[in-house]
Amino acid sequence: MINTVLFDLDGTLLPMDYDTFTKGYFKGLVAKLAPCGYDPQRIVDSVWKGTGAMMKNDGTVPNMDRFWAVFSAMNPEHWDPAHMELTDGFYSNEFHAAKKYTSENPLAKGLIDALKADGYEVVLATNPLFPKVGIEARLSWIGLTCDDFSLVTTYENMHYCKPNPKYYGEIMEMIGKKPEDCLMVGNNTDEDCAAAEAAGLKTILVTDCLINESCTPVATYTNTVFAELYDTIRRTVKE
User: Fold this and answer.
1) Distances, alpha carbon 132 to alpha carbons 19, 33, 86, 137, 157, in Å
2) What residue spans define the domains of the chain?
3) Where are the alpha helices (DSSP H) in the chain?
């Protein structure tokens, strides 16, 4: 019996076009770090390569360590460990300007509250490429906090990323659940559905901000729009 619901954040709980959002907030991150001597384009390149390293993480170190190892290696002449705190400061403050690259979702908090009232455990299974403070910021844009979830996956606490099925295995271990206990809800056919199902979870695909790079037929997965997600979850957990 399913007793736990995992939610993706970007494009699922928080509506957005990921490419537009990323390009938008990168401008702010570059403006924050460039005064430390970094070349602006090198900052962008370093972030992308660091992100790639996290997505290929083999589980031996936290994603955060993978990212900063790459970033520091690409910028040895300017790197200072204090810049990690500077980046966290960006996510606490200037990053909020990136809200304009997302959309409102007045249904998100109500959905999470309703599921918790029904007795379900809820997990924020966002791809752990951001520090916790950056995830807290994005949650605040839809009226939620990290405290609304029993677990929030961040680059500090995770050792794998989507679409690696081991990412879901790590979550199961952290919350003490089996795959058959859990349902994954997301907008990405590969990262949220195919990978989660490979780990043994049931899934629901939310199509409002669909990402389908593999061109998988949407009907492959139980799918819905966000406005009908609560009813779809209730039906799915009973199947």
Assistant:
1) 21, 19, 14, 9, 9
2) 4-16+103-238, 19-99
3) 18-33, 40-55, 63-74, 82-92, 108-117, 132-140, 165-175, 195-198, 229-238
* Angle 132-135-138 from CA coordinates, rounded to 5°: 155
CA-nearest of 80, 157, 89 to 125 is: 157
Q: For residue 196, how many other CB atoms are within 10 A of its CB? A: 29
For residue 154, the tally of other CB atoms under 10 A from its CB is: 22
- Letter string b/e over residues 171-195, b meaning 16 or more CB atoms within 10 A of that residue's CB: bbeeeebebebbbbbbbbbebbbbb
Q: What CATH number is given for 4-16+103-238 in this structure?
A: 3.40.50.1000
Residue 153 main-chain phi, psi, to 5 deg: -85, 125
Length of the chain, please? 239
Residues 6+ apart with CB under 8 A from 173: none
Measure the CA–CA gap between 126 and 131, rounded to whole angstroms: 11
**Residue holding tokens 């907030």?**
25
Tens-level pLDDT at each residue, the chain (239 residues) = 999 999 999 999 999 999 999 999 999 999 999 999 999 999 999 999 999 999 999 999 999 999 999 999 999 999 999 999 999 999 999 999 999 999 999 999 999 999 999 999 999 999 999 999 999 999 999 999 999 999 999 999 999 999 999 999 999 999 999 999 999 999 999 999 999 999 999 999 999 999 999 999 999 999 999 999 999 999 999 88
Read off the pTM. 0.96
Whether the CB-CB separation of 5 and 182 falls below 8 Å is answered with yes
H or E stretch at 223: strand 223-224
